[in-house]
Amino acid sequence: MTYCLGICVKDGMLFASDSRTNAGVDYVTSYSKMHVFNPAPDRLFVILSAGNLATTQEIINIIQRDIDYPSGVDSLLSARYLFEAADYVGRVSQQVQQQHNSALQQAGVSGEVSLIIGGQIQGQPHGLMLIYPQGNHIEASKSTPYLQIGETKYGKPVLDRVLSHDLPLNDCARLALVSLSSTTMSNITVGPPYELSLYRTDEFQLASRCKFEEQGDYLIELQQAWTNGLIQSFSNLPRFEWESTEYQAALELNQIENPASIENID
Amino acid sequence: MTYCLGICVKDGMLFASDSRTNAGVDYVTSYSKMHVFNPAPDRLFVILSAGNLATTQEIINIIQRDIDYPSGVDSLLSARYLFEAADYVGRVSQQVQQQHNSALQQAGVSGEVSLIIGGQIQGQPHGLMLIYPQGNHIEASKSTPYLQIGETKYGKPVLDRVLSHDLPLNDCARLALVSLSSTTMSNITVGPPYELSLYRTDEFQLASRCKFEEQGDYLIELQQAWTNGLIQSFSNLPRFEWESTEYQAALELNQIENPASIENID
Predict the structure, then answer these.
(1) Closest CA–CA distance from residue A178 to any residue of chain B (Å)
(2) How close does chain B come to A208, measured CA to CA in Å?
(3) Among the partner residues B161, B182, B218, nearest to A238 by beta-carbon distance
(4) What's residue B252's pLDDT?
């Protein structure tokens, strides 16, 4: 399994991915799921991938080949808008899947791949898109500033509570690490090292690209701080009416009935 | 969709459920998914349900009928252990599903139901079990003190970070409400009112049973406190190395390269 996350805010974009890959539980390896393309000084793209590893690698290789031999073919070099780049990558994905589809179906294996592409082409705003296995795509927006692929559910609640279009990029990076580590805690098929890329709008190169190892100081410190923060937040939650001393005293004096009958819902 | 949660700790048990029921997005109604049986002074059971509503209602009706007419049939009255009660409920579930299976299959509808049963029979410890649609069951343990059915993923990370076998029951109740409201924020097919039941070991009756409305003061206060707590925890997370003023100063003086190349993972 995989968990990849793209965040698109006012100042730029943040890309995050885990790196655990498995074909069954006994063949667990580590692959980067983050692919950066900077084919010309006026454009930068980051592609995140979830799904069949062979399909992913072939898609990435074809994208690179089309940059290397650009004459007469669509490529990340020829795209004038981000949506054209997403459309092109979606077509490559469909082409690779269809090539192997009948053999994979016979083996009962899915060759599908979901992708996130984010980036910027000079003269255009930066943007983030999710490319479905079928090749079509949707775009992140101000009110939905993130897109996820893979094992998306465990890491979503914290995004829904904290993320906004105005969040600074370094905070987005911390948030992405929290979202990834929450997913890892609940699903062992998602795991570190985690990779992060940070892109500031109009720079056309990454501001930061880094990798966080499971036993690295920063990740251990972050996870400890987050768990402590949650436990602290939890201890500050409002008490139930029946926990108050007045209530307990009244209960003992039989001035009120017990809570089960008071708030009985039947 | 549905989200139900059972928690089994040292002091007793906590049961929680949402109440949104839908058959398609345009027939959304509200049903209780929490069923309490106290058929004799020496035993109490709570059953939570997720899945086909018709199957659920028939299962619950049969369980009640078998209590009302106990002669010669298995029932919640005749069970000597919790596992016997779970086994009995699993058999009722299978029987109801099989009765309607062929008609449902023709309509492409699933008649499956997942159940959680928790309770205590005098002389036995309290316990919590998940009954699969196939009728078999697993039990909660000290190291896995909770069981979930329905839309389980969004509400799991907070349980994994906070819950332990020693947590007091009122804290378990708050934790269950946080887990439910996180799920509702991320999936609109799970929604309030939320129901809670609290059982203290060896009491053979519920200590508390209550219902939290969406616009109720307590739920609004709890959600606000939790969101504020998360944002506070988030703001206390450790900063990245590249955010320090020393680092930024060194970067400006060209004493170090930019973070992208320093921590480049390629």
Answers:
(1) 9
(2) 4
(3) B218
(4) 77
| Chain B contact set for A218 (CB, 8 A) | 238, 240-241
The dihedral over CA atoms of B68, B72, B75, B76, expressed in degrees to the nearest 10, equals 80
Amino acid letter, residue B174: R
In tens, the pLDDT along B12-68 reads 999 999 988 876 666 677 888 999 999 999 999 999 999 999 999 999 999 999 999
Ranges of beta strands (E only) in chain B are: 3-9, 12-17, 20-22, 28-30, 34-40, 43-51, 113-121, 127-131, 137-139, 146-150, 194-200, 208-212
Q: Do A207 and B259 touch (CB under 8 A)?
A: yes
* Prediction ipTM score: 0.84
Instruction: Determine the residue among A208, A224, A247 to mutate to test chain B binding: the one whose Cβ has the most chain B Cβ atoms within 10 Å.
Output: A208
Counted residue by residue, chain B has a size of 266
CATH 3.30.230.10 fits A3-232, yes or no: no
The pair of structure tokens assigned to A54 is: 């062979």
More confident residue, B87 or B25: B87
Q: In B, which residues are within 8 Å of A174 by CB distance?
A: 234, 237, 240
Once rounded to an integer, what is the mean pLDDT over residues B69-90? 95
Instruction: Work out the average pLDDT over B198-219.
Output: 93
With CB atoms and an 8 Å threshold, state whether B185 touches A259: no
CB neighbour class for B47 (10 Å; exposed up to 12, middle 13-18, buried from 19) = buried
Q: Estimate the crossing angle of helix A82-106 against helix A53-68, to 10 degrees.
A: 140
Q: A109: which DSSP letter?
A: -
Q: Are B73 and B65 in contact (CB under 8 A)?
A: no
Domain residue limits, chain A: 3-232, 238-262
Distance from CA of A120 to the nearest CA of B (A): 18
Angle A248-B217-B37 (CA atoms, 0-180°, nearest 5)?
60
Per-residue pLDDT, averaged over B190-197, amounts to 92
